[in-house]
Amino acid sequence: MSGDAPGPFRTADVDVTNPYPCYRRYREEDPVNRGEDGWYLFRHADVARVLSSRRYGRGGLPARLPEECPHLRGTVANWMVFMDPPRHTRVRALVAKAFTPRIVEGLRPRIGELAAGLVAELAAQGEADLVDGFAAPFPILVISELLGVPKEDRPWFRARAVDLQQATSARVARRPDAFAVAEGAAREFGAYFRAEFARRRAAAGGGTDLIAAMLAEPVRGGIDEDLLAGTCVHLLTAGHETTTNLLAKGLLALLAHPDRLDRLRSRPGLLPGAVEELVRYDSPVQMISRWALEDDRVGGRVIRRGERVILVLGSANRDPERFPDPDRLDIHRDARRHTGFGLGIHYCVGAPLARAEAEIGLTALLAGLPGLALADEPVRWADDLVFHGPARMVVRADERPTRGE
Length: 405
Description:
The chain is of the alpha+beta class. The chain is built from 16 helices and twelve strands. The longest helix is centred in the middle third of the chain and has 32 residues, at about 225-255.
């Protein structure tokens, strides 16, 4: 390691397969770094402070969304992740009703059935891509169940969700038609949900799914049909890629630590705590942004009102000041207060569901595929440091575990 202080942080310079050594250097030598596109914060204390502070906000619609994508802009404008109070408060209160511990607990049997079905398909193949065969479709099936989407529409939902995700910064940089693809998906999603709302109202039926619950709310306080449609799309996409990465990277970490994997096989009661540690150890979302609403001082550096602040969650979760021996996967660790689901008013509203999906999904994989192992094909990582995870991860499901691992 050079004795010189690191220069401006650039995501393009980071090894996407293992960003943690790079994070460590910045955390130790320049933890509040003036990068090329904003301030980067690497320490847990600084990240947690900004996430919990009203001095920082989301700043509204991302500036990079082009004007010629009206459906995409309109959809994203109605995502609560880009809202600040008081609008954020109203929308979050509406959505939170679907993610209470009681509702998630009631969904567990059905989530288990969905996981078991996908695991059975993997077992039948012998060798398969875990991302495409399990980690990606599983959360789509679960959120579709929560929304009340008919089974026959779910393959279409998954395809549109993938198309919409082309609008992320990393994908736009690689694909010239990325915004056009995402605009088409946003247009089709909007039409689908508006038709579904009209069908539900015409049927005058109740229902217990999230769409029924939202339609039962009075239209007030800025909660209109555009917002309801945008919220449905947001829940579908926000819970898709993040949970996909949590499942894929969680399993990858356990396969790299066979003693921990064997312990979880024999003591599945450890899985809830292990899920928290897996989120900490290799966060599904590595970075999120905030905007300074007033001047502030962080780590001796002055951040001016209107400046962008990028919070490096992956680095915060490996900060030894908060988590001793942070590069060690310890499934017995108390990993609470990690930043993988955020903190403060924007703490992930779907965190209870994500935890349940990870716990139930990993349980199904470990129980249903006792010989699960990586195949000879190298893991291929998505070229995306924000939504961070494997794009392809081929596993063998037809071998028994070997002794002495």
